[in-house]
Amino acid sequence: MSENTNNSPLTLVSYPKAIMHVDCDAFFASCEAAVRPVLKGKPVITGKERGIVSCASYEAKRRGVKRGMRLFEVEKICPSCVILPSDYETYSLYSQRMCSILRRFTPDVEEYSIDEAFCDLTGLRRVYHCSYEKIAQKIKEAIEKELDLTVSIGLSISKSLAKICSKKDKPSGFTCIPGYELHKFLKDISLKEVCGFGHNSVALLNKRGVSSVYEFVNKSQDFVSNALGKIGRELYLELKGMAVYEVIRDKLEHKYLSISKTKTFMPPSDDKDFVKAHLFRNTESAFIKLRRHKQSVKKITVYLKRQDFSCHGLEAELNRHSSSTMDFTDIVEELFNKIYREKVLYRATGVILSKLANEGCDDRTLFDDILKIEKLKSLSKAADKLNGKFGKHMLHLGATEFLKTRNSNVHPRANVSDRKIELLKGENFRKRLNIPLLRLK
Ligand SMILES: [Mg+2]
């Protein structure tokens, strides 16, 4: 079906640009093992506070544990699994350290997420007197030696390609694709491996007779523009080896990597509306904080804690980033209905926002309802304005109206990481010294 079915290279230049993508392997679990070496080689998962797996070590994955799985299922299939509460403080410190190692090699470092970064290595061969592959290898070794955790590296000639490469051979992968090998490499890559192609884009391309990335890059630019518009054309060029997206320095600044809000109530309650009202209040509060810090979110986790302290949660992801509360209310309702059980006493509710980006992050896809998105955005802005003037939660979601007639006040401290409990001198729950707690035995 391709319009240009020759087998010639897409470019003969090895590295017109040298873009590297670093992705930590099972990052949260690896940080835990780096801090507590006794955990090395064991099945470890994090996410105890939410009741679902947030990260699983490769040993746990090998036993069938998957992200998002509920903890009681984990206990069934992998009883020896070490289940830990998340310690975002330590993860964030490890993330900062990784980026400072990267910045020793190049100033062009983009912190893409807590455990991923892009680096532009273009031009550095002369500085290090070696190939780009060798530089990438040195960086990998430096991170693994200094942080005691493994990373997967992808090196190629555009960001999109580097990201595909780093996924190729996890854990501890090292995949370098210079320009002249690109045409061979892309033959084995499926469309869904491309960051930026969602289900809809893949389905659309399949309908137009394109089933692999190689077929896609051999189409004409007009075909791609017609089918997928601007975003599609940019990805097309990136996959052809023409870097469109730049590595943007210091993108994340000092922003939150996740935001969580939780509420414990006494006595525990089996009143569905009451429990739901608290969950929606958590959601409102989390989004207020999100907007105050000019960030947007893609993923939400919802959990309910029962009287016996067992935690039951579920997570869902939007296909784009958003800072509007109303973009997530239907999702929260749906997740709540899936988790909630009649006649069970609940003692706490909670919401965690993760996969955060800066507020302006525009990753809407072709199929989004732009008008609705903008409306919800201005609604949230208006609510923030009103609440700023008349008091927090003055304007609130209908489901939380219920809270006006009830009240309760106990602060939750259960299931927090050791790092928040074993304080160092000069620290309190909020004021931190930015040092992870090492447990060498
Ligand atoms: Mg990772």
Give structural notes:
The chain has a domain of 146 residues: Dna Ligase, domain 1, CATH 3.30.1490. The N terminus is likely disordered. The protein is built from 15 helices and twelve strands. The relative contact order is 0.13. It is globular and about 70 Å long. The strands form three sheets. It has a five-stranded mixed β-sheet with strand order 5-6-1-7-8. It has 441 residues and is an alpha+beta fold. The N and C termini lie far apart (61 Å). The site of magnesium ion has 4 residues, from β1.
Structural descriptors:
single chain; about 450 residues; alpha+beta; globular; disordered N terminus; binds magnesium ion
